[in-house]
Amino acid sequence: MDKPLNQKAWLFVLPVLLIVAFSALIPLMTVVNYSVQDTFGNNQFFWNGIGWYIDLLDPTTDLGGRFLDALWRNLLFSAIILAIEVPLGIAVALSMPRDGWRVAATLVVLALPMLIPWNVVGTIWQIFAREDIGLLGYVVNRLGIPYNYTADTLSAWITIVVMDVWHWTSLVALLCYAGLRSIPDAFYQAARIDGASRWAVFMNIQLPKMNRVLLIAVLLRFMDSFMIYTEPFVVTGGGPGNSTTFVSIDLVKLALGQFDLGKAAAMSIVYNLIILAICWVFYTVMTRLDARRG
Amino acid sequence: MARIELADLAHHYRPNPATDADYALKPMHHVWDQGGAYALLGPSGCGKTTLLNIISGLLIPSRGRVLFDGKDVTHLPTESRNIAQVFQFPVVYDTMTVYDNLAFPLRNRGLRGPAVDARVREIAALLDLTPDLTRRGGGLTADAKQKISLGRGLVRPDVAAILFDEPLTVIDPHLKWELRSKLKALHRALDLTMIYVTHDQTEALTFADTVVVMHDGRVVQMGRPDELFEKPAHTFVGHFIGSPGMNVLPAEIDGATARVGGVGIPLARGYTAPAAGIRTEIGVRPEFARLAPAGTGVPVRVRRIEDLGRRRIARVELAGHPMAVTVPDGLSVSGEASVLMEPAMVHVYADGRLVEAA
């Protein structure tokens, strides 16, 4: 195969390469650079090799311990919100109207939480859930249930989980609704003639048709919740204690609070790799499922 | 089994219909016999799918009753009627195997074990689906999927009628013929009433013993294919069936002669003069009007000759009105010519409806 060599093509790629270099590669390399050094301020850096990485992956060290703790908290949080938002989103999508003006009204109402900036969502819930002046916190306490997210771990967790469910269930619902809308009426009519129960219709018609959007929804919600920062930071600031300190919050504490640039850089690289790995697993599962169906 | 009776049936989608035009289905009364093969034929929007959905119970009519063997089923849910329906787009449960698809209606009705197995295998054999039984429904071709939809209807032992809603729309042309033959064979083998909705006259005429032509929410004619062809009850039927359709010419009726723009055309019998204000027309199919040399019949002017392969059709003008007529083999004329019509096949229509012999 003789292909004519045309070096001019590089000229067309060059702008993209430059943009990618400045937006991604160079910042990333800076982080890599920090992660192998230590600093005591004064802009003096010392070579540390893979020392931070060894610490980070060893749970017996101070750094490794707090990283693992934050990671577990993060995974637990993602698992809880997926377990709530996915079934709830499906249920909402199933009960949404199929036609008429109600469709538009429902869509607007559902989209509202997603349109609010994240730190505003945090602020809303921070105030809403306060036990002294917040409507929710005050009412719950008056009902005799002790609830204080600044002092009690369980309260703090419930607050951020409910907040995330409030903020993001709509996304799952809207994606599922799109999947449901693609089912022709004939399927429902045929199912009625076949005598299928409501459950059989769900299992054999609706769920298979929602499968793909559901995988996308799970992927999006997992990634988002795994990288969550703003809302819990605004509400609890990672507390009480470290009980709601997720990896990203810990990262900021490390980098900007303690100014441990080396440790923070190593942590962000590992954090990033974990996210990439999970993405890869999701992607593989999705494409496998697709191929099996084709 | 099932003799289907539509008693004084009508349907409208809008509330409080004021005029006839508000009805999707105008009041009708029909009886369809057990074991018949019926085709509902008509253009899009004529109400044929509405009628089908009323029979299957997906829709409850706003007026009148549906009776199966004299039993009122108007308000009976569709799953409790012994009917099956095959839709335009094949409905297959993608994630199930072909076997499970066929077993689905039986299992939903609480049947289990060998009874299900025997029935599924019997129907699969009937539809040539046996080799595909273990495959998943999602990956099959459109015609195989449509056979599965049909199979899910046939598998129920209690089914007395199968309704088809334009079932061959998404099937490849060369498979359409095959599938239609299969349907005919099934109809002969099983004692089932079949109702087949289509807008394709070839499909209707080859499938059905009785063709029900619908137009604008009304059944305009119900009859054997040859009746529709030879004696259309409405000018619409004349237009819609046949290619090219029936020639309809405005005419004045004078005893046993029709006058089209002053030109006399002999009729088979005498007609009483219609009341004033009624539009009278004559209709004659191109097959019963032959072109002939000038001076031998009704004078016409030839516009052009179309060669349809098997036959030739002349587009002519009779006193300014366009008409299609058959050109006999070997005849070549142009310009002035004549048309010979079989008087028995020249029908008289008053306001679109056939005027029957008294």
Keywords:
heterodimer; A: 294 residues; mainly alpha; MetI-like fold; two-stranded antiparallel sheet; 12 helices; 2 strands; 74% helix; globular; B: 358 residues; alpha+beta; Rossmann fold; OB fold (Dihydrolipoamide Acetyltransferase, E2P); 2 domains; six-stranded mixed β-sheet; five-stranded antiparallel β-sheet; 8 helices; 23% helix; 35% strand; Sugar ABC transporter permease (chain A); MetI-like (chain A); membrane (chain A); transmembrane helix (chain A); transmembrane (chain A)
What is this entry, summarized?
Chain A: Belongs to the binding-protein-dependent transport system permease family. The complex is a heterodimer of chains A (about 290) and B (about 350). Chain A has about 290 residues and is mainly alpha-helical.
Describe this structure in words.
- Chain A: It is a multi-pass membrane protein.
- Chain A: It is found in: Cell membrane.
- Chain A: Belongs to the binding-protein-dependent transport system permease family.
- Chain A: Residues 71-282 form the ABC transmembrane type-1 domain.
- Chain A: This is Sugar ABC transporter permease.
- The complex is a heterodimer of chains A (294) and B (358).
- Chain A is mainly alpha-helical and 294 residues long.
- Chain A has a single domain, classed as MetI-like fold (Orthogonal Bundle), CATH 1.10.3720.
- In chain A, 74% of the residues lie in helices and 2% in strands.
- Chain A contains twelve helices and two strands, in the order H-E-E-H-H-H-H-H-H-H-H-H-H-H.
- In chain A, strands 1-2 form a two-stranded antiparallel sheet.
- In chain A, a hairpin with a 5-residue loop joins strand 1 (37-39) and strand 2 (45-47).
- In chain A, 29% of the residues are buried.
- In chain B, a hairpin with a 2-residue loop joins strand 20 (347-350) and strand 21 (353-354).
- Chain B folds into two domains: 4-240, P-loop containing nucleotide triphosphate hydrolases (Rossmann fold), CATH 3.40.50; 247-354, OB fold (Dihydrolipoamide Acetyltransferase, E2P) (Beta Barrel), CATH 2.40.50.140.
- With 358 residues, chain B is of the alpha+beta class.
- Chain B contains eight helices and 21 strands.
- In chain B, the strands form five sheets. A six-stranded mixed sheet of chain B has the order 6-7-8-3-9-10, with helices on both faces. Chain B has a five-stranded antiparallel sheet with strand order 15-19-16-17-18, with no helix packed on it. Chain B has a four-stranded antiparallel sheet with strand order 2-1-4-5, covered by helices on one side.
- Chain B has helices at residues 48-56, 98-108, 114-126, 142-154, 173-189, 201-207, 225-230, 235-240; strands at 4-11, 25-32, 37-41, 63-68, 71-72, 83-86, 161-165, 193-198, 210-215, 218-223, 247-250, 252-260, 263-271, 280-284, 289-292, 298-307, 312-318, 321-327, 335-341, 347-350, 353-354.
- The model of chain B has no long low-confidence stretch (mean pLDDT 85).
- The longest helix of chain B is centred in the middle third of the chain and has 17 residues, at 173-189.
- The interface between A and B is medium-sized, with 17 and 26 residues.
